[in-house]
Amino acid sequence: MCGIAGLTAATPEILLRLRDRLRHRGPDGEGQLLCDRTGTGLAQTRLAVIDLSDTGRQPMLSACGRWAIAFNGEIYNHAALRDGLERQGHCFRGGSDTEVLLTLLASEGVAALPKLVGMFAFALLDRDSGEILLARDRVGIKPLLWGTLPGGGLAFASEIQALATVPGLDLSLDPLALSDFLACLYVPAPRTIHAGIHKLPPGHWLRWTPRDRQPEISRWWAPTFSGHRPLTTEAAVEEVMPHLRAAVRSCLVADVPVGCFLSGGVDSAVVAALMTEARGRGEVASFTMTFSEPAYDERAEARAVADHLGTRHTELPASADLVSGLERMVAAFGEPFGNPTALLIGDLSRRAREHVTVALVGDGGDELFAGYPRYQGGLWAARWRQIPGFLRRGLIEPLVGALPESQSGRHSLRRLREFVAGAGQDTAEMYAGWVEYFTPAQRQALLGGPLPSRPIADLLRATGRVDPLDAMQETDFRSFLPGNLLAYGDAMSMMHALELRLPLLDHRLIEAVTDLSAATRFAAGPKTLLRAAGRKLLPAALIDRPKRGFNPPMARWLRQDLAPLVAERLVPERMARLGLDWAGIAPLLAEHRAGRRDLSLPVWALLVLDCWHEGLCR
């Protein structure tokens, strides 16, 4: 795991600046290469996980000297790939996965990408032709940003805050990205908040040549929820279980201590159980974050799983001053990012890093195994539409709309209101209404101009899926998962040089699950297959528990810890600097303060936006 960066027409000074901005990602080593043939430079900071010797140092040159690579990530099947390459006559100097990847790419180019099992973002330089190849893993676990330089050059990096130091990039605010941020609370790929910096989307590669000087971008993998195979739950689990086991065992490949994050949910419980199965009782370190607020605390559930498995379990109380990390969080993303769970992941990663270098997590389980309540809502919507319109619009909708919402972490009333408000629309508009925060009308009031589109509705329509569950899950795989969950997982863990691994997003497992019909995947409701698999590993009482998300007490933060900051920053003159009309903000703040609705996340998003802008202006 590393931080990588580079650019054409590089200078030693720029490479050093890029490297220094990424040092937190790789405290175990650093390097840079300035190619005397092409003028292109590569920089890298290393978190040593596989082959801790100097033979794993980067940027790495191929044996023939033609190819150079800067690589961030892990190739879990590097040993098998090495065996195949050795049979072809290739020789290796060390035991790193970087050398295997470099050799394979030099031999096969982009045709090698489907052979890789792991998480990765890399830059490959052909020192003879000057061609640069950038590529990103299938689901977007590892980030990669790029931008075009004056004259058609190319620059790239693992993080925006590093790339933004390269002279010549257009750092002006992208108004469409700002609108998308207000809708999603993150900026979906390929945009960033800066007009001249772009995210390479998951499952894509980019090729740049000195002759064309125009990046060519192509998709090499995409999630496809289009399976039609109807199986019983038992038969489906028999198919899926070997892939689950293989995914977890792959993620255990490391030359450093490995542990896991353990919540009260089925996702992390299954991961911990399979880790214990592979390594034995007493050989797995598990970590749980605890809270003083009962609605957010899962220590009892996590402890029960840990006790059953015999893990070396550590409970880590959430830091009392979490909110003080707001500015550092915003800096880590380099753009506005509105999911406050990032602060929790950062705090948990900081504490866990005192014990391990790698942690397995259950992220991706909700998206792959259909765990979100909104998936159930999307399937119920068809029945809702059968209720006579005069009853829905004339009686039920007004009654439900008048219900107050809880600000104590319990979301039942909010979900009921959102369901009733959206279930009568087509699937795309309905789903967008559930997962977007500022509506098109609210964004128009804030930003002016024509009514903006719904980015999530556009994505869902683009899937072309007929079954609502297929459409919703595939949309999340293309938006919420890489743009939100994976983004904060990488940014906040690598801030503390902790590598997170996500076995539930192993592409072999994804392809096995998505090959099954929606009816099979949802036969017994949310997470049908994962829960059934979990019951083969743990007592049912530890698996069949209500879902509770990993979220901070936002309403309390905004009422107490953050109240002075909200009063100071969310004022007309500061919002005007962002191009936001106060007339669109005042009603939202009034409604939130009155307690009629839980608008904690939109308020937080505005706070984050102001914090980002202030940092930009320094």
Task: Kindly summarize this structure in a few lines.
Helices cover 44% and strands 14% of the residues.
Q: Would you give an account of this structure?
A:
There is one protein chain. The chain has 618 residues and is α+β, with helices and mostly antiparallel strands. It is built from 28 helices and 17 strands. The chain has a six-stranded antiparallel sheet with strand order 2-3-1-9-8-10. Strand 13 (258-261), helix 7 (266-279) and strand 14 (285-290) form a beta-alpha-beta unit. The radius of gyration is 24 Å and the shape is globular. It starts with a strand and ends with a helix. The mean pLDDT is 94.
Please outline the helices and strands.
Layout lengths: L1 E6 L4 H10 L7 E6 L6 E6 L13 E2 L5 E9 L2 H10 L9 H12 L9 E9 L5 E5 L8 E4 L5 E4 L2 H4 L11 H10 L13 E2 L4 E5 L7 E4 L13 H18 L7 E4 L4 H14 L5 E6 L8 H11 L2 E6 L8 H8 L7 H12 L5 E3 L4 H5 L3 H12 L4 H13 L10 H11 L4 H9 L4 H8 L7 H9 L4 H11 L1 H15 L4 E3 L5 H8 L3 H4 L6 H7 L5 H4 L10 H6 L3 H7 L2 H6 L8 H9 L5 H18 L1
Parallel strand pairs: 13-14, 13-16, 14-15, 16-17
Antiparallel strand pairs: 1-3, 1-9, 2-3, 4-5, 5-6, 6-7, 7-11, 8-9, 8-10, 11-12
Helix pairs in contact: 2-3, 6-7, 6-20, 6-22, 7-8, 7-22, 9-28, 10-19, 12-18, 13-14, 14-15, 15-17, 17-18, 18-19
